[in-house]
Design brief:
The complex is a heterotrimer of chains A (about 350), B (about 325) and C (about 375). Chain A has helices at about 10-20, 30-40, 130, 175-185, 210-220, 270-280, 295-300, 330-340, 350, and strands at about 45, 55, 65-70, 75-85, 90-95, 105-110, 115-120, 140-145, 155-160, 165, 170, 195-200, 225-230, 255, 285, 310-315, 325. Chain A is an alpha+beta fold and about 350 residues long. Chain A has 2 domains: about 10-75 and about 175-350, Zn peptidases (Aminopeptidase, 3-Layer(aba) Sandwich), CATH 3.40.630.10; about 75-160, Peptidase M42, domain 2 (Elongation Factor Tu (Ef-tu), domain 3), CATH 2.40.30.40. In chain A, helix 1 (about 10-20) packs across helix 4 (about 175-185). Chain A starts with 7 loop residues before the first helix and ends with a helix. Classes of the chains: A alpha+beta (about 350), B alpha+beta (about 325), C alpha+beta (about 375). Chains in contact: A-B, A-C, B-C. The interface of A and C includes residues 25 and 35 of A.
Chain lengths: ~350, ~325, ~375
């Protein structure tokens, strides 16, 4: 098959997706974009009880395996928990955010996207001890300047960052995992005569892989692929004498194929398949370093009687902060690897011996 | 039995790579079951049907996990050293000086970066030395897995091996398959995968088996060595019947049933309340519309080290106990 | 009001630790047999009371599951230590509240369980490892006033330990005692059933007193899966304002109940219930639950293909202590709100709470 490319329309879509707000549990704005993209597609589309968008074949053809593609719509962010007066709100973190990355950031609050900031005490008024100490979330507030209009506890807030394409670079919030959402939507443009595809645009990945669990239980696929974004910690080691051996992934080296993470032992037969098509099609790929962390694969592979599952992720730096950095080349290699792999999938895979 | 345990514990099968053990069990249990299947996660599910005319047989799932803890290569350094991540609950303090064997046969020893007095060993500071000097043409790739390398041995009448957790459960299940003649129940012997990384194999196999009753066979901790606190379990004092662990509470009816069976067999048993850890029984309990579960545990010293020690007397009694439990009609 | 007080006190006094709910389940069954069409027990000990609905004409049969966990926190014997017992907690207990607490040990040494009073003792400081204040649970002991041989014959590892205090009434509306978490919610659910005994709602109502919420949500996971309802309502206690507890996570006791808002909760359903509450004048606070709701909703929501779920909270002071304090008015309000919700259940209800009003939205599809 002719492998896909990233065109301008895909870039425009990713921009729209990344700029949308979709904190775990309140993915509404992203869901609207996804539902609009699904209009007119020859698929059964529904929003499930948690808010995930599930798109399945109109008619199941049992001679072909059903492959579930998953990407999560939600992003890390904040929930306002109390109105402290004068436009100040206490908040809680939703998803794994390091409070140290928060002071001095711009945010957008609520459905009306009211501009706000997370301030910090002026350096002049802090003591040396304070500056050396840890920041607590309780000490930080979201400030919308004046008495909030139409804002109340329970509202979500996201980073205000707008996406920028700079040469080969993508700077944006929420690349994790809007890039996966964009990849799923791009896969719908392709034809795979060997398989049938079901799509899950899942909610609540960042707070325990919950949307994908429910989606997999109802789709009950033969195989599943979780498409996500994965951190790259490919920075110099603080001690120049020691090799940086804990980088997770490196940007620019292509999609990261997972073998083992905190949530999943990826099906070794799928790992072998995707490595092989990578070699055959000369697509740059890397192995994500085994270790902790996880993706929606973690809940999908345990659904019902079990699902052979693999995760493939686009690497990015600065995970779960206001601004992430990813590479267009890695994005394109990811869609190519995924398309190439999908075109080779069949029931035969389950008959191959496992290690 | 000793030969069986030796063969089983000397296989290498870290979570997700259970095939050597699965193949061994398949060969060992030939002719002992009526149906066999391997599911999507690699669980080996063997059904031994109830004797003809057994009325309305109950579906009993007996789970023993095939996998063991291990390590997985994360990075090959320029000078040939292999960095790694743990698979399952690997204690860093047990690492320095350990030997490992990769599934592809490569052997290595674990070293640790120089430490200051008082430093705790962390996995990040450890590396595997496979005796090569460069990353070029290295025998290990990122994602390769290894088990701890240690032979079975007998020490003062006790058995010591790596992966006694849970090959001893596997061995008991195999012996029970041999011992059960005419059962009143449909017994699903499920040799599960990926227990050490979160009872995952039991979760999917319990879903597909959908049993009326679940029994996990696994090791438990011990309290009979110097300054070992929190658990009153002794080696040789009988199999332990689990009442509670950190992940679940056994069904009180199942506990009662197990205790009366042990008493009927006039064998020693111990009551177990384990403060940390859990077993496949948790996953079975939570499957579908819920399953009454219990655990027959084998007291085991030094769990999750390369020298896990058990008493063969407890094993013998466990076989007797489980054989009785699965053979006779069950009325909870 | 008197019904609520009497039932609550009776339920609080009944044993029923996580995994061992039978004694309290029997009491609840007694109530529900009178008000439900069918009462059954699940494979892991949850109690199900089915109240059949009229069912919307020409539509698929619908059901709402209303869950309140019936299990209580407590302790369990881990070791016989001379003439004393060592123990662990069942559910989460702060060991700092324990020294000097009267307890009941459910002794099984002679077969049938015999309840014996005892007290939690902390050893003399010189007999413990040095500590900078609090005494860890594994240093605490239970004293039954028995000599070693007697203790050995009476008590076994795994025997249960519950708090040995009886509920107290404070004025006309307030009751305190152990296990008000979550017997207060079970009382609210039972009150709702009793008040509507002779009424048929549009949908089936499945009341569930879940087991093992305090340990691994076994009851909620399994009952929601087997019932596979169209909607679920979880009732649990939430934090009331009190000494040392005054931040955003707390709500004034007696001043109304809460509705959770967060990822475990279906936003459309929650908004609809909020408007129902406003209509029937039940004071409601919206309780932000940014992540895990800490209730059965966590398990119920992800059953099968997912279940739209809400959480109703009854403010409770001193949670997970032997003197949990709750206001009867809030229990009454909860029962009234359940009635308000169930009265609205018709063939259009699912449409009214749908996520978005997109053409493709299938939340309300049959």
């Amino acid at each position: 098959m002719e492998l896909p490319k990233i065109e301008q329309r895909h870039k425009d879509l990713l921009e729209k997706l990344c700029n949308a707000a979709g904190v775990s549990g309140h993915e509404d704005e992203v869901r609207k974009i996804v539902l609009a993209e699904l209009k007119g597609k020859h698929l059964n589309v529904r929003t499930d009880a948690l808010g995930s968008v599930i798109a399945t074949p109109k008619q199941r053809d049992a001679s072909k395996p059903l492959v579930m593609l998953d990407a999560h719509m939600d992003e890390v962010g904040f929930m306002l928990v109390s109105d402290d007066g004068d436009g100040l709100y206490s908040f809680e973190l939703v998803g794994g955010i390091d409070p140290r990355s928060l002071p001095g950031k711009q945010v957008l609050v609520g459905n009306d996207k009211v501009p706000g900031v997370i301030g910090a005490k002026p350096i002049h008024l802090t003591t040396a001890d304070e500056r050396a100490g840890k920041l607590s979330v309780e000490s930080l507030k979201i400030d919308v300047g004046t008495k909030g209009k139409n804002i109340q506890p329970g509202d979500r807030a996201v980073f205000a960052t707008k996406l920028m394409y700079v040469e080969d670079n993508i700077f944006a919030k929420a690349i994790d995992d809007r890039i996966g959402v964009a990849i799923l939507l791009q896969m719908m443009e392709l034809e795979f005569p060997n398989i049938q595809l079901a799509y899950s645009f899942s909610v609540q990945e960042e707070i325990g892989l919950r949307g994908a669990k429910v989606a997999a239980q109802s789709i009950d696929p033969d195989f599943a692929i979780a498409i996500d974004a994965t951190p790259a910690y490919d920075h110099p080691s603080p001690d120049g004498s020691i090799e940086n051996s804990y980088y997770n992934t490196k940007i620019g080296l292509g999609p990261a194929i997972y073998t083992y993470d905190g949530s999943t032992l990826n099906d070794p037969r799928l790992v072998t398949l995707f490595k092989r098509v990578g070699e055959e099609e000369k697509i740059t790929y890397q192995l994500r370093q085994p270790g902790g962390g996880g993706t929606n694969g973690g809940s999908i592979h345990r659904a019902n009687g079990g699902v052979p599952t693999i995760s493939i992720s686009v690497p990015h730096r600065y995970t779960h902060t206001a601004i992430l950095l990813s590479k267009l080349t890695d994005w394109e290699s990811s869609v190519r690897l995924l398309a190439a792999g999908l075109s080779k999938m069949s029931y035969e895979l389950t008959k191959q011996p496992r290690p | 039995m000793k030969q069986l345990v030796k063969s089983l514990t000397e296989k290498f099968a870290p979570s997700g790579f259970e095939s050597p053990v699965r193949e061994f069990i398949e060969a060992e249990t030939k002719g002992l079951f009526d149906e066999m299947r391997v599911d999507a996660l690699g669980n080996l599910i063997l059904l031994k049907k109830a004797a003809k005319g057994a009325g309305q047989p109950k579906k009993i799932m007996v789970a023993a996990h095939m996998d063991e803890i291990g390590v997985i290569a994360t990075h090959i350094e320029k000078d040939g050293f292999v960095r790694f991540a743990p698979i399952g609950g690997v204690y860093p303090r047990n690492l320095p000086g350990s030997r490992v064997r990769f599934v592809n046969g490569t052997r290595g020893v674990i070293g640790v970066e120089e430490m200051k007095p008082g430093d705790a060993v962390s996995i990040e500071k450890c590396y595997i030395d496979v005796g090569v000097l460069s990353d070029a043409g290295h025998p290990v790739c990122i994602g390769d897995v290894a088990g701890f390398d240690r032979e079975f041995s007998e020490v003062g009448g006790k058995w010591v091996a790596k992966a006694m957790d849970d090959r001893i459960g596997v061995a008991i299940a195999i012996q029970v398959m041999r011992a059960v003649k005419d059962s009143a129940n449909d017994i699903y012997f499920v040799f599960t995968t990926q227990e050490e990384v979160g009872t995952r194999g039991a979760e999917t196999s319990a879903y597909s088996v959908d049993p009326d009753l679940g029994i996990a066979l696994d090791v438990t901790g011990w309290g009979d060595t110097p300054n070992q606190k929190g658990l009153s379990i002794k080696l040789g004092a009988g199999p332990a019947i689990k009442i509670k662990d950190a992940g679940m509470i056994s069904d009180p009816r199942v506990v009662k049933w197990m205790i009366s069976a042990a008493e009927a067999e006039e064998m020693p048993y111990q009551r177990e309340v384990l403060l940390g850890g859990t077993t496949d029984a948790r996953a079975i309990q939570l499957a579908r519309s819920g399953v009454p579960v219990g655990v027959v545990s084998i007291p085991c010293r030094y769990v999750h080290s390369a020298s896990e020690m058990i008493d063969p007397i407890d094993v013998e009694n466990a076989v007797k106990l489980v054989t009785r439990l699965v053979s006779l009609p069950v009325h909870l | 009001m008197q019904y609520i007080k009497t039932l609550l006190k009776k339920l609080m006094d009944a044993p029923g630790l996580s995994g061992f709910e039978t004694p309290v389940a029997d009491l609840i069954r007694h109530e529900w047999e009178d008000t439900c069409d069918e009462v059954t027990v699940s494979k892991v000990g949850s109690l199900h009371g089915l109240k059949k609905g009229a069912q919307p004409v020409g539509h698929k049969a619908r059901s709402v599951l209303i869950a309140a966990h019936m299990d209580a926190i407590g302790m369990m014997v881990t070791e016989l230590h001379g003439s004393f017992l060592r123990f662990t907690d069942v559910g989460g207990i702060d060991p700092r509240i324990l020294p000097g607490t009267p307890v009941t040990v459910h002794c099984s040494g002679h077969g049938e369980v015999i309840q014996r009073p005892g007290v939690i003792a902390s050893p003399h400081p010189r007999a413990m490892a040095p500590t900078n204040g609090s005494i860890p649970m594994n240093e605490l002991l239970v004293d039954l006033g028995m000599v070693e041989a007697e203790l050995k014959s009476q008590v076994q590892i795994g025997d249960l330990i519950s708090f040995n205090t009886h509920p107290m009434e404070h004025g006309s509306d307030v009751i305190s005692g152990h296990s008000a978490d979550n017997r207060a919610s079970v009382t609210a659910l039972s009150t709702f059933l009793r008040n509507n005994k002779n009424r048929q709602f549009g949908w089936d109502v499945l009341a569930v007193a879940t087991s093992q919420e305090e340990t691994n949500f076994a009851g909620a996971y399994t009952s929601s899966r087997s019932a596979s309802p169209d909607l679920a309502i979880v009732i649990d206690v939430t934090f009331a304002k009190g000494p040392g507890s005054n931040d955003w996570k707390t709500y004034a006791s007696g001043k109304g109940i809460t509705l959770g808002l967060g990822p475990n909760i279906h936003t459309g359903f929650m908004r609809k219930v909020k408007s129902i509450a406003e209509e029937i004048e039940i004071p409601i606070s919206v309780e932000p639950m940014p992540k895990h709701s800490g209730t059965d909703a966590y398990a119920v929501q992800v059953a099968n293909a997912g279940i739209p779920t809400i959480v109703i909270g009854i403010p409770l002071k001193y949670m997970h202590t032997p003197v949990e304090m709750v206001n009867i008015t809030d229990i009454k309000r909860t029962a009234k709100l359940l009635e308000g919700i169930c009265s609205e259940l018709d063939d259009k209800f699912l449409k009214k709470i749908a996520w978005d009003h997109e053409e493709n939205d299938g939340t309300a599809e049959d």
